[in-house]
């Protein structure tokens, strides 16, 4: 069994900080679960364009307020605590945090921890990371 406390993972290799978002990967590929599990915090007023071409992702809002726009359909959905979205079609999207958003996220396949967001908003597939 794996038991971890978010606060113990701060400032470890599982905790990554970008300018407008931070993310603690409570489960990574190395944990062998078949998915990764992240607690991601997006700064108030920030806007993010993501496109996980090689991953499926579901995201649950723990706290905060914002919206997500599906760039395929143009539809915008409000995000607040209790709302989940699943990018079941690798949907290109914009995520906006009107108030700081704290989100619980699952990725399939799991993130290894070495990915960086590419210009198109995607993460490379794990196989490509091994090559580089
Ligand atoms: C909200 C969201 O899409 N989070 C993605 C996870 C985050 N970019 C990470 O941990 O890499």
Note the topology.
Layout: H1 6-9, E1 15-17, E2 21-27, E3 36-42, E4 47-50, E5 56-70, E6 76-79, E7 84-87, E8 93-108, H2 126-131
Antiparallel strand pairs: 1-2, 2-3, 3-8, 4-8, 5-6, 5-7, 5-8
Residues 23, 25, 38, 40, 50, 59, 103, 105 line the site of (2~{S})-4-acetamido-2-azanyl-butanoic acid.
CATH level 3 topology: Jelly Rolls
Low-pLDDT residue spans: none
Alpha-beta content class? mainly beta
What is the number of helices? 2
Portion in helices = under 10%
Average pLDDT figure: 91
How many runs of DSSP E, i.e. beta strands?
A: 8
Quaternary assembly: single chain
- Measured by DSSP, the beta-strand proportion falls in over 45%
CATH architecture: Sandwich
Task: Write structural notes for this entry.
The chain is mainly β and 132 residues long. The chain has a single domain, classed as Jelly Rolls. Helices cover 8% and strands 45% of the residues. Strands 1, 2, 3, 4, 5, 6, 7 and 8 form an 8-stranded antiparallel β-sheet that branches. The mean pLDDT is 91. The structure holds (2~{S})-4-acetamido-2-azanyl-butanoic acid (9YT). The site of (2~{S})-4-acetamido-2-azanyl-butanoic acid (9YT) has 8 residues, from strand 2, strand 3 and strand 8. (2~{S})-4-acetamido-2-azanyl-butanoic acid (9YT) is lined by residues 23, 25, 38, 40, 50, 59, 103, 105.
Short description:
The protein is mainly beta.
Question: What are its keywords?
Answer:
single chain; 132 residues; mainly beta; Jelly Rolls; eight-stranded antiparallel sheet; 2 helices; 8 strands; globular; binds (2~{S})-4-acetamido-2-azanyl-butanoic acid
């Amino acid at each position: 069994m794996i038991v971890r406390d978010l606060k113990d993972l701060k400032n470890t290799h599982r905790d990554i900080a970008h300018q407008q978002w931070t993310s603690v990967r409570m489960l990574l590929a190395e944990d062998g679960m078949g998915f990764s599990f992240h607690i991601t915090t997006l700064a108030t007023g920030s806007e993010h364009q993501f496109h996980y071409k090689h991953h499926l992702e579901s995201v649950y809002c723990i706290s905060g307020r914002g919206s997500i726009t599906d760039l395929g359909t143009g539809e915008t959905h409000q995000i607040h605590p209790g709302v989940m979205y699943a990018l079941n079609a690798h949907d290109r999207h914009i995520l906006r945090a009107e108030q700081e958003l704290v989100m619980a996220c699952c990725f399939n396949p799991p993130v290894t921890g070495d990915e960086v967001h590419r210009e198109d908003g995607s993460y490379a597939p794990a196989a490509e990371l091994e090559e580089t």
